[in-house]
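re the bet — no i am not wrong, look at it urself. input seq straight from the record:
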Amino acid sequence: MNRLNHKIAILILSVWGMSLLQAYAQVPGGYYKMAEGKKGHILKTALFHSIKNPRVISYSALWNAFKRTDMRPDGRVWDIYSTQEGGKAPYSFDFDTNRCGRYHREGDCYNREHSVPKSWFKEAPPMFSDLFHVYPTDGYVNGRRGNLPYGEVGITSWVSANGSKVGQNTFGGYTKRVFEPIDEYKGDLARTYFYMATAYEDKLSNWKSDQIGGNRYPGFSQWSLELLLKWHREDPVSEKEICRNEAVYAIQQNRNPYIDYPELAEYVWGKRKEQSFSFSKAKNAKPQQGDRSTRRWLDKIRQSIKNTVQ
């Protein structure tokens, strides 16, 4: 990318990112109106009616959509399987020149990762190209994950450059092989799964896996639900998620309610599922203060704008 194009890209991203962060999650008025005062499985179904039927784009169009949903402030691909805590990465990808064909090792290229493996829902639309759960990730790491559930690894058989692991699960009595992302993205993926179990509640009964599917509610196996709630609680919503939620909403015209209102997970599945949720009293998500990597990148963006203006 030449200097002028780089500055233009940084400026566009900066204005977009800063405006979103200043407003945080700007939920359209009345968007979740039908879920007001609901609880448990009834609340989940009401949320389903609020976010169902997303206007998903084609699978091939995801490559360009990632430039809106998953661009780091340096203009490179935001890959949750290679980016480390603190924003560092052993390698990075260009959106256009590093798309996967063949790969042999980490860092060769990136591809389109179905965080909910496509085999679980038989590659059916619209789930197949729903941006909320399709992320750009290193092709080799994606291949090592395959269709393994997410979990917490005890006996490790493989570790990626950023610390993601494959090995035997040690959480909740489930002992098969799993893939464990780094801590910085566990909450992101938990809220992605909550979205998928809600947006496709009417299809969940036909999904086959050890983690998600089989019924409309809760939509998860018990060990999986406990794990995802744990990750959701321990890794709060970040600025990255808020920005991505807004970017996907601009494309698909639906939102992830568990990013907009993180407390919802407790009222649907967790400690407060016997209590009614009030959107009028709840607060929109604000990013955790400890999200250092994103804040550091945002500081660089602001400095880039300042330098460009000068």
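see?? The chain is about 35% helix and 10% strand. told u. also The mean pLDDT is 87. so pay up
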